């Protein structure tokens, strides 16, 4: 993939199904396991793609040229809890795109009224667990079979809890339909692979 092409993030929808399937087919088994905790098939089932592109919350894709290289979403899991999830192509992992896309999903979930975020993580996914612990040190964690469920306050991943003015501005931008490009997002001091 040509890394010099412009990276764009936009809202996702059903027309993205074929390109998203292509990205999923290109992922390693480990990346797929860390995101879905089960086999999804190659090619993935249309029902899975539909749930990813049209969740009970919202979804976004990152594109480089004509190819989808990232997917992020949030979905309601309760009255005030939004589950956040992200998946990044192999070539784009460990470059900060996952955290940037999580920031977009988190801001949208907060704008929709989420008070808590849920992350469902494999205990083997050390990088994601460290990212959660850095951003939400007091995160409650509960084992659910072979998975870890982290419930954290609905604060943007790269913002301190007291920076409400910054959070409010990002929410207002999302309400106006603005999705920040990668260059407009604040730089991250760490890079995190796909969740």
Automatic annotation (TrEMBL):
Keywords per UniProt: Transferase
One MF term in the entry's GO annotations: acyltransferase activity, transferring groups other than amino-acyl groups
Pfam families associated with the record: Acetyltransf_1
InterPro entries the record matches: Acyl_CoA_acyltransferase, GNAT_dom
SUPFAM superfamilies attached to this UniProt entry: Acyl-CoA N-acyltransferases (Nat)
PROSITE patterns: GNAT
Superkingdom of the organism of origin: Bacteria
Domain N-acetyltransferase span(s) in chain numbering: 7-172
Annotated protein name in UniProt: Acetyltransferase (GNAT) family protein
Organism name: Kribbella antiqua
